[in-house]
Design brief:
Blueprint (H helix, E strand, L loop, with lengths): L3 E5 L23 H12 L3 E6 L4 H12 L4 E6 L21 H6 L9 E5 L2 E2 L2 H13 L5 E8 L10 E8 L5 E13 L2 E6 L2 E5 L4 E9 L3 H15 L10 H10 L4 E6 L5 E2 L6 H13 L10
Parallel strand pairs: 1-2, 1-4, 2-3, 6-12
Antiparallel strand pairs: 4-11, 5-13, 6-11, 7-8, 7-11, 8-9, 9-10
Length: 299
Amino acid sequence: MKPTLLVLAAGMGSRYGGIKQMDSFGPSGETIIDYSIFDAIRSGFGKVVFIIRKDFAEDFKNLFEPKLKGKIQTEYVMQEMDAFTEGFQPLEPRTKPWGTAHAVLCAKDVIKEPFAVINADDFYGRDAFKKAAKFLTDEVSPKKYCIIGYYLAKTLSENGTVSRGVCDVDANGNLVSIVERTKIFPEDDKIFYVEDALRVPLPADTPVSMNFWAFDPNVFDFIQTLFIAFLKENVENPKAEFFIPIIGDAYIHQQKGEIKVIPTSSQWFGVTYKEDAPGVKSSIDALVEKGEYPGTLFS
């Protein structure tokens, strides 16, 4: 059975100022998602599932369906605010979805095979997809998941702070803990994150998660249990987000299994801010010139 790729494309893009999931970055108008799917297909993935929102679903499908038809199976799932909440109602209305782990949970009814999760606005590189596909084919189990790990220094933006899942890895290459740091930035050749108004330094080679995970489908039941507990604990916080690292950390500390951290040689780049776009375009142009990708991905 070929693994599935789950693409998280329901984000609001508040810092970017638009729907970056559908913006063009390649020489023939390709989106960042196009490059991820191209790499996934040539790495052996058999299906792609998009998590999107109703307000742009029609435009999204019209953009991706024509070029992907006949190349890979596609499915679409809406991240609804009340999906899998078991009737829970927050004290204050929310203006944004519950977060990335909730987005994954929304795909529970359409994914029954081993799968990888990626962000729509991150360029991960071919090596990352090859390693994820190999893991999902040869190693994944209900007691073994993985993260594709990137060096922190290679994942920053020059245009503002970024959020990263900061990993603590043991001597065997397995995850010890992961914490989502939401305000990471470079300054004077050093890297810091902010927490409770304190600036905390981080080494440049710290392994971080860029939300490229590989899971056995048994993870959905685990996520659902944690999500309900999360809702009860955060009933008074309308801005609380249920991040995927919360799942990874709980999986380890509840001794459900191990999470392997697989380092990649791929260079990450992405579009957190509008100002990141020119750099992403030039990086993709350089890869095309080197022959890593064709000038037109899907013809």
